[in-house]
Amino acid sequence: MPQLALSDEEIRHLVAFLLSRNEGAAAVAAAPPCDPRVDAAAARALITRYRCPSCHAVNGFPPPPPGFELAAGAPDRPTTVMLRDGRLLLNHYNCRGCHRIEGVGGTLADRLDRKTFAPPGLDGEGARVQASWLVQYLRRPTTLRPWLHIRMPDYGLSEGQARTLAAYFAALARVPMTDEPSPDAATDVVAQGLRRVAHFKCGQCHIGGADAPLPKALDPEDLATDLTLAKTRLRPSWIRHFLARPKAVVGTDTRMPSVFYTIDGAPTVDHPEQDIEAITAYLLHMSEPLDVALGRLDAERQDERHIQDTDWRTYAY
Is the pLDDT reported for residue 74 higher than 90? Predict the structure, then answer.
């Protein structure tokens, strides 16, 4: 049973629902009480006959065997082994019940009025995220989109299980099971990236961290993840590809607009590659939440305008 991170109110709702499910209550009440004088040997024979310990832990019987065995976690495992082990874990934890993986699953979206509130598809996940981040997230899931009611459960995965899943996604994406290094960037390039982020109004959708207040005037469907996660979560090469052609990378359902190129690949701004490199550098070197950085940038611009206005008045006199 995973940890579901339920609030007290959600727990009360679930308890109320479960208590309302009273089908069969009369049959349970009419069942004869347990007789402690029943022969324990006969009970043991029944347990053995129906092979209860093959699934359940029963006192006095060997523990149930694991449903499957994973290969040893050597880094040079064949791709076929990494894919097999990952699929075993996906099936065991029913990951496809929420996520679309290898083109299959994600049926939870069929039960939602707004499909964009469903858990994300994980095709291409290995090319998107850093391996170390994925291992850490699978072991201790954190809130990435605080406005969603659906949350990733904590299954209590071991280090080996988490690394097996990360290796599976890396093998699917044909990338190494290692973190992609973040390139160095000059200070002026990072500053230019912030200016371009402000110019394209990225802060309208990308809110702050999990504790940041949600904008009341904005539809939750238009909200996007906290950009401060990018430098630890995302591979630099994926950021560049996504900024250039978001719908080609993650699908046509993404709310991310195509800012730099049309679908046909024609530039829509004067220097798309320079803008992409600058924004990527900024995301990989962010040191404060985006709203704080944008507020500081706006204050600096106001100071510059004030200085220019003061210089003009002095010159005029």
Answer: no
User: Which tokens belong to 195?
Assistant: 């200016």
CATH class of residue range 79-173:
mainly alpha
What's the distance, Cα to Cα, between the start and end of the chain in Å?
A: 77
Residue 307: per-residue pLDDT: 66
CA 282/CA 300 separation, integer angstroms: 18
**DSSP code string of 24-74:** THHHHHHSPPP-TTS-HHHHHHHHHHTTGGGTS--TTSPPPPPS--PPP--
d(CA 308, CA 300): 12
Q: What is the CA radius of gyration of the chain?
A: 27
CATH code of domain 187-312 = 1.10.760
Q: Which amino acid is at 317?
A: Y
Residue whose tokens read 């093998």: 171
Please determine whether the domains at 79-173 and 187-312 fall in the same fold group of CATH: yes
Cα distances (angstroms) measured from residue 290 to each of 145, 227, 276: 16, 7, 17
Pick from 253, 251, 252, 256: nearest CA to 202:
256
Averaged pLDDT, 278-295: 94
**Residue boundaries of the structural domains of the chain:** 79-173, 187-312
Question: How far lies 3's CA from each of 94, 142, 155, in Å?
Answer: 15, 12, 6
